[in-house]
Amino acid sequence: MTFLSILFALLIEQLKPLRADNPVYTWVKHFSLMVEGWFNAGHARHGRLGWFCVMLALMVPTALIYWVCMHIGAWAAFIWNVVIVYLTLGFRHYSHNFTSIQLALNTGDDAQARTLLAEWTKQDTSDMDVGEISRIAVEKALITTHRNVFGVFFWFLMPLGPACAVMYRVAEYLARAWNEPDHMRNEEFGRFATQAFYWIDWIPARLTAAAFAVVGNFEDAIFAWRNFADRWKSETDGIILSAGGGAMGILLGTPDKSASAFLPIDAATVDSTGIETDSPPGDLPTPRALQSTVGLVWRALLLWMFLLLLFSVGVWLG
Description:
Blueprint: H1 2-15, H2 23-39, H3 44-72, H4 74-88, H5 95-106, H6 110-121, H7 130-156, H8 161-177, H9 191-200, H10 202-215, H11 218-228, H12 235-248, E1 269-270, E2 276-277, H13 288-317
Antiparallel strand pairs: 1-2
Helix pairs in contact: 1-4, 2-3, 3-4, 3-8, 4-8, 5-6, 5-7, 6-7, 7-8, 7-10, 7-12, 7-13, 8-9, 10-11, 10-12, 10-13, 11-12
């Protein structure tokens, strides 16, 4: 039933993508703002209490409804699973941005590509050239795909599947909402949300990186993962981007720009063959890299679905 739930949710999303400003997401945002207003007194422990308040308020009803559906019948649980996966997945949330940037670059409209990228990433793109636009778009797509698709898959496979999927997406949102806005930067309140999502995402991030390696250039992906992942300020982002870039043969991250949060290179790295190298393997990104990213993501998705199918068949036969 798990495999069919994900499959049906993916098909529905392809036919009817869920808008980012849908009522469910809007309510969650308003609720998290209310909790922030209730609990934020400038201390880390208040952020911890607020985080658990949000999680309990969303996970408990999800789990209770799932329990009731299980007692009604398998068909009811299946419908509830499809609804939750559809709400928590975001495979098409960003695709129109990525596709629009790709089309603009392919037609030579660099100005339009900069504008679209700025709207998507909330960065200043006025001085970016085509290579940098391509790189930032690829990096954003890989991270967004992981957090909106593969991370959700992993937690949906846990015993309380729907509730765990909700936990993952809400934890990812709180880690951003309670840390990224200007009025929340460097505040103690959002520290626990960041730490909690780091541990919640610890296994899914590595599984995503492994999937990229399997469906791409395995040797370069593993080499980049082992030797260059720690050069990003975010360990999780470093693992996904280094493996994804290596899998596609694309050089992601840059030593002198902050757009990708890639740390400066201070010393050369010695690989397993004894050869010194100060950058990950791969070529500089071009507009063709965006098409490579689409292929990598779809192959990784098919790999996840195939493994999930094998797991489901094994459970059914067992």
